[in-house]
Amino acid sequence: MYDIIIIGAGPAGLTAAIYAGRQGSKTLILEKGIAGGKGLEVPLMENYPGYERIEGQELIQKIKKQATEHAQLKELEEVTKIEKTREGFEVGTKKDTYKTKTIILATGTRHKRLGIPGEEKFLGRGVSYCATCDGPLYKDKKVLVVGGGNSALQEAIFLHKIGSKPTIIHRRDQLRAQKYLQDQTKKLKIPIIWNSTLKEIKGNNAVQGAIIENKKGQTITIKTDGIFIAIGEEPLNKLAQDLGVKTDKAGYIITDKQQRTNIERVYAAGDITGGLNQWVTACAEGAIAATTAYKDTSKI
């Protein structure tokens, strides 16, 4: 019987583990992939307190090392179901079943899909959602980056710096990204195709081109070797909804200020709760969730 099982090992889940373990709670982290989540995809962070510049992969390794000193981590073990029991909860994975008094959901989000022809067909063959993962394959090649927020500009800047030739496609006439990213994009003279959307991805065995449509309905075909899609995230909420945890209209878990959900002894932290999807807020919510879980179980 664990005191706390944390589902998800991104910044929120790992921070929750640090706090849970340090306060004496027997803690298990279950992660369907490799610890770090989408944090592994961040090329360069310049807004995390204490680090002027640090790669996402480097920072996550530091947090992981600290977390595993205080909690048990099982990677590549996806949770498939959570059931309420008299003693607490039973958490089932594809490998085993675990019992716990409390649960912290830190399941995060996944990249939104465009849902256009060619997107699924060429996934891994020119279509990517992660420049850090796949960008080095496109050195000296032309690529398109779809989106206008922080993620899209970070991807484009990273691709430019490793020697790719990125062009941004944005459906509006203004970017949504933070000013310093916009300034950097201008400084690097990364081209932007305004008021346009990607309608179809073309190719034979791999991506060779893209059809782009502007607001007037005019279409053009552009030759490209790769397409990086960065149009936002959607919550990974199936486990939460199956358990009866309330979510908002967008599917994000609703919590109070102490990260409690509507289900007793179930807490949520990180991107799955919506709001400002930043590492610093994810870590803060993870700390609060673990501390609240400890206090609530101590009253039992």
Radius of gyration: 21 Å
Q: Please, what is the average pLDDT? A: 94
Task: Note the beta-strand portion.
Answer: 25-35%
Structural class, judged by helices and strands? alpha/beta
Terminus-to-terminus distance? 15 Å
Overall strand count: 17
Quick recap:
The chain is α/β, with parallel strands linked by helices. It has seven helices and 17 strands.
How would you characterize the overall build of this protein?
The chain is an alpha/beta fold and 300 residues long. It has helices at residues 11-22, 56-67, 131-134, 150-161, 179-187, 238-243, 279-298, and strands at residues 2-7, 27-30, 72-74, 79-84, 89-93, 97-105, 109-111, 127-128, 142-146, 165-169, 192-193, 196-203, 207-214, 219-223, 226-229, 233-235, 266-268. Strands 1, 2, 3, 4, 5, 6 and 17 form a seven-stranded mixed sheet that branches. Strand 9, helix 4 (150-161) and strand 10 (165-169) form a beta-alpha-beta unit. Helix 1 runs parallel beside helix 2, helix 1 runs parallel beside helix 7 and helix 4 (150-161) packs parallel to helix 5 (179-187). It is elongated and about 65 Å long. The protein starts with a strand and ends with a helix. The mean pLDDT is 94.
